[in-house]
């Protein structure tokens, strides 16, 4: 039998210790006494403590136990755990037993809310009622602790079970899946134990195993499990097949996912949803939208899950017309138009399509709002360059009674950095500290960048030093802070420290340090980084390959720059811009312009960054005619709006060659931007 002292007690409980032991129990040195006295107090109360809210919950004195059970279950279904636990306290003190069905509904509420503290209080009540050995309740407890993220507590209950069916085993598997990361080894270990003990595996056992591989991108293990499924005859299950499709997509193997899908004759909406989400996960927007059309063509209706999947896809593709059609469908169904997460998705979609006006209409047309919908609107303002409005929205949000959450804070901190509004940045920092958002990695990273952009590099360093559990993102953010402040040697030092730590640089960190090597003209260091890139097999990442080409150009090793460029299998605007810039950095201006012309002739579209590089080269070389020609090309052929940097380069170029009157015309055009 499990005693109360074996269960970690919650920090708060509705029960109070007797007055004569109050001081004794408050002492940390007597924590074990607290556990002991607490369990005695539950079992033998002299008088039930008064609950001020109990009369408002139900008239317990006039109801029989079965009516009270119904009230507890009603509160559980409404996720009102505090009220339900208050009534449980009352029943325990009156010696009225509670049935397993009532406890099952309370356990389900704990799972939905993922409230570990409430789960532990509930476990104590189960022990008091003598149901700790009930197999049905034990299975539910394993599932509850696993869902709340406490695998240790789940295993403690599991180990006490005399007979274990497949259901508690599956709960353990699911718990490790919920924890995510590289927990697939624990899942695989549990699964192997199940097979070794002869447990009758079911489709949910395999589904949990496959999901763990998907979360860890463990393709090889997934392929082995696929073979095991065929051997054991489980491949006919839609649950298993959908899990396999999801796993292959998350492991980046789109071909196998597609083949798995094509092998299924009758597909339900869940399987279609897995395909659409898989394409979206792999940035295949066109395919995601195409499969949505195919699903509708087969007579299946789009559900809320698929809607939340395709709305970001439409935004990323900039397909505003299609977005309006989806919006019309949402309004038509009515049920979906009331769901806040779909409303937030519509705001986000319109914002990404550059239509913030329609996004605002959706937001302010909604009868209900929450922190998520406010964050979607703030993100929309940022995407569309309305930074001041984004910052003001934080105040409006709080005036409506909504507290900014971790995501809201991480969204708005970069705005403070861009606008260099240190006062507001510090206020948000204080709010994050007060609400326990630190040391969240995302918030810490944003704080570091905000302080560096506001010119307070020492504050960035303090935030970085305060992070106990650093990751690659926080290390890279510290490097970026030094780079933005022009402290390139210090950025190099941070990179070296990261390599000495347990964290290994990813493609972003490698790209950043390559730019540092280029600016400092450290060819030897650059070559070392190049070697690491080849070892990690990330040379094909566009951002990394572009920085590699530029680094060699900055170090006047143009042959190596050209060689690196030629090795890139799939070239895009980013890599073409990099080789043009590399020739410019090495002083070979005519070759740089020829590369730009070659880029255009091969059908690659230059972007505003490409033209910025080209105008800068023309300015240095004095290519006035070609500079003006490219400026006209940018506006007329590529419909790119000229920025201040573009105008500045052209003005300086024309003044340098003595074409003052033409330069003055561009000055007037530049002033019209303000």
Automatic annotation (TrEMBL):
**Ranges: PPR repeats:** 134-168, 268-302, 370-404, 471-505, 572-606
Chain ranges passing through the membrane = none
Q: Name one Pfam family in it.
A: PPR_2
Output the InterPro entries linked to this UniProt entry.
PPR_At4g14850-like_plant (IPR046960), PPR_rpt (IPR002885), TPR-like_helical_dom_sf (IPR011990)
Keywords annotated in UniProt: Repeat
Provide the residue span(s) of the region labelled Disordered.
1-22
Which NCBIfam families has this protein been placed in?
PPR
Record-given protein name: Pentatricopeptide repeat-containing protein
Organism of provenance? Datura stramonium (Jimsonweed)
């Amino acid at each position: 039998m499990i005693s109360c002292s074996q269960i970690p007690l919650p920090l708060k409980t509705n029960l109070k210790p007797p007055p004569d032991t109050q001081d004794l129990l408050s002492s940390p040195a007597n924590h074990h006494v607290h556990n002991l006295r607490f369990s005695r107090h539950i079992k033998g109360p002299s008088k039930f403590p008064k609950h001020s809210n109990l009369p408002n919950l139900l008239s317990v004195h006039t109801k029989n136990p079965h009516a009270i059970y119904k009230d507890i279950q009603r509160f559980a279904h409404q996720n009102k755990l505090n009220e339900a636990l208050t009534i449980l306290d009352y029943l325990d003190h009156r010696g009225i037993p509670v049935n397993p069905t009532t406890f099952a509904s309370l356990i389900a509420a704990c799972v939905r809310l993922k409230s570990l503290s409430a789960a532990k209080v509930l476990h104590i009540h189960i022990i008091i009622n003598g149901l700790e050995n009930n197999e049905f309740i034990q299975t539910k407890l394993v599932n509850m602790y696993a869902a709340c993220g406490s695998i240790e507590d789940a295993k403690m209950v599991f180990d006490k079970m005399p007979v274990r069916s497949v259901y508690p085993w599956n709960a353990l598997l699911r718990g490790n899946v919920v924890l995510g990361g590289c927990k697939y080894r624990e899942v695989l270990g549990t699964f192997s134990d199940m097979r070794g003990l002869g447990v009758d595996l079911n489709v949910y056992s395999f589904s949990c195993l496959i999901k763990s591989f998907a979360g860890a991108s463990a393709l090889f293990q997934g392929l082995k499990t696929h073979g095991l499924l065929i051997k054991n005859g489980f491949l006919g299950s839609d649950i298993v097949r959908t899990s396999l499709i999801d796993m292959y997509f998350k492991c980046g193997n789109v071909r196998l996912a597609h083949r798995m899908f094509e092998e299924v004759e009758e597909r339900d909406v869940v399987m279609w949803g897995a395909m659409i989400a898989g394409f979206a996960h792999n940035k295949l927007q066109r395919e995601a939208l195409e499969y949505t059309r195919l699903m509708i063509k087969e007579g299946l209706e789009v559900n809320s899950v698929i809607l939340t999947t395709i709305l970001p896809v439409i935004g990323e593709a900039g397909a505003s017309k299609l977005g309006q059609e989806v919006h019309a469908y949402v309004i038509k169904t009515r049920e979906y138009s009331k769901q806040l997460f779909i409303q937030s998705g519509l705001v986000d979609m319109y914002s990404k399509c550059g239509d913030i006006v329609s996004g605002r209409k959706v937001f302010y047309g909604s009868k209900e709002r929450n922190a998520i919908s406010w964050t979607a609107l703030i993100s929309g303002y940022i995407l569309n360059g309305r930074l001041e409005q984004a910052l003001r929205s934080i105040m409006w949000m709080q005036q409506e009674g909504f507290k900014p959450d971790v995501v809201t804070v991480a969204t708005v901190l970069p705005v403070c950095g861009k606008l260099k509004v240190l006062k507001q940045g510090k206020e948000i920092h204080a709010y994050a500290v007060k609400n326990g958002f630190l040391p969240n990695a995302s918030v810490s990273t944003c704080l570091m960048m905000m302080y560096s952009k506001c010119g307070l590099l020492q504050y960035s360093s303090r935030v970085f030093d305060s992070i106990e559990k650093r990751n690659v993102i926080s290390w890279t953010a510290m490097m970026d802070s030094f780079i933005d402040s022009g402290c390139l040697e210090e950025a190099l030092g941070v990179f070296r420290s990261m390599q000495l730590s347990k964290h290994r640089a990813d493609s972003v960190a490698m790209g950043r340090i390559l730019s540092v090597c280029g600016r400092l003209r450290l060819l030897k260091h650059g070559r070392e980084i190049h070697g690491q890139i080849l070892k990690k097999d990330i040379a094909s990442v566009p951002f990394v390959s572009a920085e590699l080409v530029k680094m060699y150009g900055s170090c006047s090793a143009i042959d190596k720059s050209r060689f690196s460029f030629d090795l890139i299998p799939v070239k895009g605007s980013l890599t073409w811009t990099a080789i043009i810039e590399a020739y410019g950095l090495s002083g070979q201006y005519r070759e740089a312009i020829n590369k730009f012309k070659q880029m255009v002739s091969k059908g690659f579209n230059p972007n505003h960054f490409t033209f910025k590089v080209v105008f800068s080269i023309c300015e240095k070389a004095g290519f006035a005619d070609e500079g003006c020609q490219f400026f006209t090309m940018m506006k007329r052929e590529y419909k790119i709006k000229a920025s201040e940097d573009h105008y500045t380069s052209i003005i300086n170029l024309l003044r340098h060659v003595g074409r003052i009157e033409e330069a003055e015309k561009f000055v007037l055009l530049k002033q019209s931007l303000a």
